[in-house]
Amino acid sequence: MSSMKTIVADAKCQELHAVIKTASDKYLCYTRIEGNCFVLAASNGYDVWRTEIDWEELKTLADLSDLSTDKYLEKIRNGFLQADIQASLIGAKVNLVIGQGVKALTHELYEAKLAQKKSDLNSILFRLAERSLELESRLEKADMEIAGLRQQQKTSAVGDSSGLILDLDAKRNKQPKIQPKKPGMSAVNPASRKRRAAHGVQFD
């Protein structure tokens, strides 16, 4: 059987995050892999609440929801991507609800110990910083590509316009010049003169 880390990674659930606003607070909800456990966590910036899910617990949670483990993880992923998550602080724990209605997935997160809190905050801080730098780099690259395409379009438009002007000039130069007709010359056959009507002999 694959390790829990591989199963969660295959489901693309190992590094999810979403910001959830409540009436009184905001929570950064996130996932991570720790050892051979899948961690669901939430933080308000200074406190951390979390739960660790191993393979056996994942199977139990999936069975209770009448889902396969793959579908269970897929539902968690969709909830984070769509920010379809609710977080509420109740006493010393946070209830994390993913999805809506009777098919929603509910997890109870408990306050982390000091060492876990430091580890989690360090992990999510650098993850978000790296993700931000990566997005900025992609955006800068996309802007450069767009600028290059616009320049190509301008160059192409100027080239097409110049070619059209040159083509028109060439066509004008190729047109035969109309020579002025000399008196008495035939318009149909310029080499021959027009025949004059015959007149009888005139006697004075």
From TrEMBL:
Coiled coil: none annotated. Residues 169-204 are annotated as: Disordered. Pfam families: PAXX. InterPro entries: PAXX (IPR027873), PAXX_N (IPR054134). It comes from the Eukaryota. GO terms for molecular function: molecular adaptor activity. CDD domains: HD_PAXX_N. GO terms for cellular component: nonhomologous end joining complex; nucleus; site of double-strand break. One of its GO terms (biological process) is double-strand break repair via nonhomologous end joining. This is Uncharacterized protein. It comes from Ridgeia piscesae (Tubeworm).
